[in-house]
């Protein structure tokens, strides 16, 4: 990732990709206290646009506020910086990664006097869970690692440190040949994927776990809005893993994963064992919106 051409926005300036480095004693590297975003820009009928830029930027600021990291830039500056990175790298569609981290002035967990830095990179990134997965569904396994408890980590924040939990879960199931992990909350109810929110379909109704220990996904919110607009009933509630075993359809949502159907959980076939009809409809509608083909959701697109 580090050895390529292009530019990264780093503390207010575009710097050549290979020079966007930081010291090994940077605080975030040692203690995991940093916040970030995952954003996508898509090629639309009217040029490249960033999907839900405002909401991603709002979440980045909320994450920073939860961790008491003082943002050195305002939202308008960081929204323009995200556009600038896409333009500078001449990207038509891409993934954008803003990250906020502490400097290297001091070690130890007293982080109050440290400088706060912001970097924004962007690069092309295709289907996160594979093109085949998008069309046919992926194989998922419940991880033995539990999702964060609300008072062990801050579940509303997209923070650097919280991803060790995701990586442990993914490592475990990938070792057994699965595409992605499903994590249960500390009480044993279904929470989310390692990097995605979960939806299930049962008798034509859509269900998704309540947000207690999940990230408040922006794709999740987009699908909820879309589903309601399509006249589908959406219920947020606690879900058990055997409800998923017996559902008609299941899918993951996320900026990287977009809308990825799930065809199997814990060696149980879900529904028809492939992408189900409601998943197909929502996935197609999602891709129409991000491509600028549905005027109703035009305000979700920030042109670069
Ligand atoms: N949960 C987790 C743990 C994630 O990492 C992500 C990806 N950001 C999501 C859910 C989905 O969030 P979003 O749709 O905003 O990308």
TrEMBL record:
Protein name as it appears in the record: Branched-chain-amino-acid aminotransferase
Gene name, Swiss-Prot/TrEMBL: ilvE
EC assignment: 2.6.1.42
Obligatory cofactor(s): pyridoxal 5'-phosphate
Listed NCBIfam families: ilvE_I, PRK06606.1
Keyword tags: Amino-acid biosynthesis, Aminotransferase, Branched-chain amino acid biosynthesis, Pyridoxal phosphate, Transferase
Catalytic reaction list: L-valine + 2-oxoglutarate = 3-methyl-2-oxobutanoate + L-glutamate; L-isoleucine + 2-oxoglutarate = (S)-3-methyl-2-oxopentanoate + L-glutamate; L-leucine + 2-oxoglutarate = 4-methyl-2-oxopentanoate + L-glutamate
GO biological process: aspartate biosynthetic process; isoleucine biosynthetic process; L-leucine biosynthetic process; L-valine biosynthetic process
Enzyme class: transferase
CDD domains, A to Z: BCAT_beta_family
